Amino acid sequence: MSETFHPQSGAETEKLFHRRKFLEFLSASPVVAPGMVSALAGLSALGTDAAMAQSYDVLRQSPGNVGEIIDSPSQALNVFDFEPAAKKALPPAHYGYLASGVDSDETLKANRAGFEKIRIRARRLIDVRKIDTTVKIFGETWASPIVLAPVSSQAAFHPEAESAVARGAKVKGHQMILSTVGSTSIEDVIKERGAPVWYMLYPTDDWAVTEALVRRAEKAGAPAIVLTVDRQGGRNTETLFRERRLDTRTCSDCHTPGFKNEVSRKPMFDDIDVSKVTNLYGTGMTWDYVKRLRGIVKGKLVLKGIVTHEDARKALDYGVDALIVSNHGGRAEESLEATIDALPEVVQAVNGRVPVLIDGGFRRGTDVIKALALGANAVCIGRPYVWGLAAFGEPGVTAVLAIMQREFETIMRQVGATKLAEITPASVSRA
Ligand SMILES: Cc1cc2nc3c(=O)[nH]c(=O)nc-3n(C[C@H](O)[C@H](O)[C@H](O)COP(=O)(O)O)c2cc1C
Question: Which helix (H) or strand (E) holds 146?
Answer without folding.
Answer: strand 146-148
